[in-house]
Amino acid sequence: MSTSANPVLLDVAKVTAGFEVRSGWSEALHEVSFTVRKREIVGLVGESGSGKSTAVRSVLGLLAAGGRVTGGSATLSCVDGPNQVDLMTCGPRRLRQIRGPQIGFVAQNPFSALNPVIRIRKQFAAIFKAHGLKFGAAERERCVGMLAATGIRDPERVIDGYAFELSGGMAQRVVIAMAMVLEPSLVIADEPTTALDLTVQRQVLDVFAELTMANDRSALIVTHDLAVVANYCDRVIVMLDGRVVEEGDVTQVLTAPRHTYTQHLLASARGRTPDTNGEAVRHGVH
Amino acid sequence: MRGIARYVVQRIVVGWFLFLGLLTLSFSLVSMLPGSPAKAILGEYAAPDDVAALNVKLGLDKPFLERYLDYIGGAMKGDFGKSYFTGNPVLQSLLERVPNTLVYLAPGLILATVLGILFGSVAAYRYRRPADRAFTVGSSVLLAVPEFILALLLIVLCFSGLGIAPAPVGMTSSADAQPPDRTGSLVLDALLGGYWGTFDSILGHAVLPMITVGVFFAAPVSKIVRTGMVQALASPQIEFARACGLRPFQVFRYAMAEIRGTVMTYFVIMLASAISGAAIVESVFSWPGVGGWSLTGVLANDIPVIQGFVVIMGTASLLGYIVLDVTTTLLDPRTRGQVSGKRRPSPRVLAKGLTK
Amino acid sequence: MAFIEAYDLVKRYIRPDGQELVAVDHVGFAIERGDSLGVIGESGSGKSTLARLVLRLIEPDGGSVSIDGVDVRGLRKGDLRRRRSGWQIVFQEPFASLNPRMRIEDIVAEPLVVHEPRLPAKERRDRVVAILEEVGLSGDLIERRPGHLSGGQQQRVGIARALITDPSFVVLDEPTASLDMTIRASVLRTLERLRRDRGLTYLFISHDITTVESMCTHVAVMRHGQLVEDGAACDVLSSPQAPYTKELLSARLLVDPGENRARRELEDLVAAEQQSKEAAGCAE
């Protein structure tokens, strides 16, 4: 099923960003452009230092201290009405209102993302209150339903407990439920299964992809793992050293990669030891 | 719940043994101080017979172990000895003076904590920006200023200069009514007797010592808050909270929960160090608290007074650490679960809770 | 008798809550000289503890290990230290296992200083440069410190340090887990070349099936401290017998562009759910 005819939901255009460092300014993203269409799962692939994390944090307005977007735009088509908003210029207040109801975020490690000393119910409540909603019995039921949808069998008990009482896979399901509870049209997942054990990874990815597709959402999965892309994504964006080096339909990119780096990445992921030297490809070719 | 009660009782029992240890320590350390108390009382040129007689009277001729057992035995009954010079029972002096010290010290430490959290957080939110750099310079300067200089500066500014503070001589003015003596402590008597004018005057006099303590300790607190807050704000937990669109104040509360333990621990450290520093502040303000009292005792080699002060300081930090230990354990659900006897279910049991 | 033989190894820990945890539960295996045994397991399976037990970096509570006919548990401390020049280990976190204040030359030469203290400095340096070049690094790096190297280079330094005493047996504890995919592939290639050139025997600990598949002649699967299954790599990975091995292999995601397996299954599932919803709607 091709998604190329779907309307564009997020249009990132020529975003440049960087960080203040001791010696001045270090550019982490250079004119990065990509799109996410409606009902589409997009994989953003790269290795450490490729800028994939910086790219999604620029979109969400969550760059770490010292980080700044210096150019470009990220236009989000909002679900409520035809209005479009540029996430790079709309200001922190509007951006905060977008995070949650419009764009959900799934963190890498659930145990460091969930608050360890606050009950899960209260963390759900905080999300509702942050967006001017009350958190009553009906909303609690909605959260319980959301937890059940992620495959947690005992959601009533889980919602009244703490994150540390859960296994890694369960905790990541809670994070997914929090990211999707306000029905965002786009969910961004940052290495959603890197911190999990192999047998749990696939279950969690299945849940994530299923909830995305069943509710007509779009997803952007940031990952270093081409296998995740190959199995769950419609399109893939490959990043290297702060630039997008290849973008396209998953089947096309994985069968006929154009960029040397993509070819190399692919060979490595298949367990084949490629002829070229990995370090040389990473540091020599752009 | 029964587990929690048992845990608290356990802490108190442990605390009691630590208190006995503290008594032993204070007794032995102070006994080892050089100099003869009898000579200190009678003067350098006293006749040897007089010195010996006084030693017998003070019980200093007895062997160390006997004196130690006498001291512990007395302490159990609330008798910490009498001052060699004034003859006042140490316990009575403590009861009189501890409230006087607390009346400025407690609000001072709270002020320090509030200021520290305020400035430390602002600096952390403005990390590496001008406001943060200004904070670093300011707090470093403040850390280098001794407490008594700060006190004198405040007196010069608020009393001599602006005239908004009362004279820095004691807790009350001569014009204030004296409440009838009930507890021995002027602060408590004024409260119990309803002498609001007098109490008001005490508070007025307490403002400058309070600000001295508050500002002096605000510098280290704010440094600790800044460091903890910078880390907390960069943590994945805060990032996720922001990514869920939480309001800035909600995010701040999450970050505060992260550094809560550190700040509470520092508060107890600060309490001990503030009591030992009370001597300086109380000397400058002629404040009739435990600090000035102990300073006089130390200078005169008044052993029971010194012991009394060591005990009160030790008890304060001991109580502080017990309260800290219990509250941090109970505030954190992970440790709370352990003491209340609820076992954390194993991941294998939990894995069965999954439908897929 | 096989080159490496482990019988019935046991290691128990007492957890903070007083419960006993059997980290390694009666595990035994054998590796022939020049072979490479991959131990696969998830976190908490005991595979890292096993790696340390084999070299007696931690004392086992039961069982025995023999390396080239030497009873490792029977050795006295001094003998064990001398023998260790022939048995080396490479750890997961390259940076954490290298002292950041030392120069690369001193880090790599450290085992030589211990095992061949009378070696002249000139010769020692020549051996360091030679081994660095053998693991794919430039000899010019000897003056640098670990902080100035990339993750892949740091791990190569770790490998060079393990190989400088010319060992016959090397334990690799997740040597590439913290490396990027492309770097991982070239480090693995180097390890494979070294094994063939030097006739090394490897015990390769990993949670990644693809890594083990590309590196190992034999595979052992661990779970909850127990050995679930072992055998020749091609047998275990192509026709697994134990249910857990099957579960691991089916959970593994492959880069097969044509298949998109997981996604297709899900799409069918979602479509079926929607159909059943619509059907329910019609029935009302």
From TrEMBL, chain A:
Protein name: ABC transporter ATP-binding protein
Keyword list, A-Z: ATP-binding, Cell inner membrane, Cell membrane, Membrane, Nucleotide-binding, Translocase, Transport
Segments crossing the lipid bilayer: none
Compartment list: Cell membrane
Membrane topology annotation: Peripheral membrane protein
Stored SMART domains: AAA
Gene Ontology molecular-function annotations: ATP binding
Domain ABC transporter stretches: 10-266
Protein family according to the UniProt entry: Belongs to the ABC transporter superfamily.
Keyword Transmembrane: no
Family matches, as InterPro entries: AAA+_ATPase, ABC_Ni/Peptide_Import, ABC_transporter-like_ATP-bd, ABC_transporter-like_CS, P-loop_NTPase
Gene3D superfamilies named in the record: P-loop containing nucleotide triphosphate hydrolases
UniProtKB/TrEMBL annotation, chain B:
Localization annotation: Cell membrane
SUPFAM superfamilies named in the record: MetI-like
UniProt keyword Zinc-finger, yes or no: no
Transmembrane segments: 12-33, 102-125, 137-164, 202-221, 263-285, 305-324
Membrane topology: Multi-pass membrane protein
Disordered: annotated segments: 335-356
Residue ranges constituting the ABC transmembrane type-1 domain according to the UniProt record: 98-328
Keyword Transmembrane helix carried by entry: yes
Keywords: Cell membrane, Membrane, Transmembrane, Transmembrane helix, Transport
Matches recorded under CDD domains: TM_PBP2
InterPro entries tied to this protein: BPD_transp_1_N, MetI-like, MetI-like_sf
Residues annotated as signal peptide: none
Highest taxon above the source species: Bacteria
Family statement: Belongs to the binding-protein-dependent transport system permease family.
PANTHER family (alphabetical): DIPEPTIDE TRANSPORT SYSTEM PERMEASE PROTEIN DPPB-RELATED
Protein name: ABC transporter permease
Naturally occurring in which organism (per UniProt): Nocardioides ginsengisoli
Lineage: Bacteria, Bacillati, Actinomycetota, Actinomycetes, Propionibacteriales
UniProtKB/TrEMBL annotation, chain C:
Assigned keywords, A-Z: ATP-binding, Nucleotide-binding, Transport
SUPFAM superfamilies: P-loop containing nucleoside triphosphate hydrolases
Record carries keyword Ribonucleoprotein: no
Positions of the ABC transporter domain: 4-249
Molecular functions (GO terms): ATP binding
Name of a matching Pfam family: ABC_tran
Superkingdom to which the source organism belongs: Bacteria
Name of the protein in question: ABC transporter ATP-binding protein
Species this chain originates from: Nocardioides ginsengisoli
